[in-house]
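Researcher: Here's my situation. A collaborator sent me these components and asked whether they could plausibly form a single complex. I don't have experimental data yet, so a predicted model of the whole assembly would be a useful starting point for our discussion.
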Amino acid sequence: MAEMFSYDDDREQKSAARVRALESLLIEKGLITGDTVDQVLKYFETEMGPFNGAKVVAKAWVDPAFKALLLEDPTAAIATMDFPSGMAGAEGEHMIAVENKPGVHNLIVCTLCSCYPWPVLGLPPYWYKDPTFRARAAREPRAVLSEFGLEFDDDTEIRVWDSSAQIRWFVLPEQPAGTEGMSEAELAALITPEAMMGVARVESP
Amino acid sequence: MQLRFEHFAATSMLGAKDSPPRNNGKLYFDRWWERQAFGIAIALSKKGHYEWEDFRQGLIASIGEWEKTHEIDDSSWNYYEQFLLALERLAVTSGALSSEEIEQRISDFSQSDACKVHEQLPTQFE
């Protein structure tokens, strides 16, 4: 077995050595410091991800007044949360939350990545910008959702929302059964970007 | 509002040939060196050593070179190997480093035991 993977190990070692070489030279020349990479990545790991959207959904599940405000005036609702300053601007503005409930399932699509609500959902999956996905999601949403593992009976209405430069939609998914006693933080950890796009359910832990 | 450079840099790549791997709404790195390379590339551009668009074009070019010499479903594909190649080239052409000093340092590191230690990040960042 070891021999089979030796080539890959070797490539890994070489790539690692090359990155070490670059970084150490750049540090010696004062072009970066030892924690530059961590500073850059901290942004991606704490702000530019689905963390904020998950917090919004979790709060809506445990706080009926917040949920009502979120559905009525999402900008005002989000403004009440302690989010980084970028959250309310850039790509996050003009957001509208649509609620999944018994008999109604919402699906979000978009042709341009510029329409994607980054501050809430993080970076989009590769298929999201695929023209085929978008066309099929609008034409045959049940078939597309079935491919994601979501089956609905004929009585359930599937609503497809196309994000634009003016409005970025996101889904308020249904709270999974058996999670009623959980804290907001525990609930937020269950929520995925896919659930907030309507291509997945939130699963109980 | 003022857009963060990190935000601009990452979003400019999405939907294009140089789109980085991601998972569950986050950037996805398999190995620690991939994360380091990504951070260094953004940091150098943020500090003005080169335009981000120049880095992107270099990356698109290195990806194109790989595609010309490999099958489309070649399982040895690694996005960050091409990323690293583009970063090394631009570090040199931008004047930040010389190719000789990079080669010398790689050689030094390849011979040292320190490099033999596997460092690996968990696959998910939280």
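Model: Some features of this prediction you could bring to your collaborator: Chain A touches chain B through 51 residues (CB under 8 Å). The radius of gyration of chain A is 21 Å.
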